[in-house]
Design goal:
Layout lengths: L2 H6 L4 H20 L2 H14 L7 H23 L16 E8 L8 E7 L2 E6 L2 E6 L3 E7 L2 E6 L5 E6 L2 H17 L12
Antiparallel strand pairs: 1-2, 1-7, 2-3, 3-4, 5-6, 6-7
Helix pairs in contact: 2-3, 2-4, 3-4, 4-5
Length: 193
């Protein structure tokens, strides 16, 4: 695809429809970390007969799904990974995930690192550090290469743009696990009298 084709996006009618359907199926597979879907998605890409240049993003998406499936399996077997770091901002927290990110919604668009600990998500970079405790997070989800953390009060969301689909998928999964452990237990039902 030439420069002008890149500016307009992939314009081959058949390729666009197949890739659009494939990307929708990838989103569903990523939501469930489905290994059978990974095999199917890979086969479908191979069957399209498109060049490596035309499938560069989709191949990266597959790599990300593969990494997510592996991480999920590891966490289910052994619990969250504990990583070593020299960042002072971590303090005594246990670090479970780190990735280079930027904050595209911030007017300065700072670049730095996203650190996920047992108690909070921390962005270190730019002029300031952003810290969000897990008990304040109502939802964590990925949007392509972004990890999106949405506060329970819906007043703010934090978008962290990763360098890869793998970092976004794995960072989101770890965020979901950490946020779920910090949610208050539901109150027991009182018997009606």
């Amino acid at each position: 695809m030439g420069f002008f084709g890149w500016l307009r996006g992939k314009t081959g009618d058949r390729a666009d429809a197949r890739l659009a359907a494939w990307q929708r199926d990838w989103v569903n597979a990523a939501a469930t970390a489905n290994s059978a879907a990974l095999v199917s998605l890979n086969s479908r890409l191979d069957a399209m007969g498109l060049s490596d240049d035309e499938l560069e993003i989709e191949r990266e998406m597959l790599d990300g799904l593969r990494d997510l499936i592996e991480l999920r399996s590891t966490i289910e077997s052994n619990g969250l990974p504990v990583l070593e770091t020299g960042h002072r901002v971590i303090g005594t927290d246990r670090l479970h995930f780190i990735a280079p990110v930027s904050m595209p919604d911030d007017s300065a668009q700072p670049s730095g690192r996203l650190l996920l600990t047992g108690t909070r998500a921390i962005f270190v970079g730019g002029a300031r550090t952003t810290t969000v405790p897990w008990h304040a997070i109502g939802e964590a989800r990925h949007d392509r290469r972004d990890v999106v953390l949405i506060r329970k009060d819906r007043e703010n969301l934090y978008r962290f743009r990763c360098n890869s689909f793998a970092d976004a998928l794995c960072g989101t999964y770890v965020s979901q696990r950490l946020a779920a452990t910090r949610q208050p237990a539901p109150l027991p039902q009182q018997p009606r009298t």
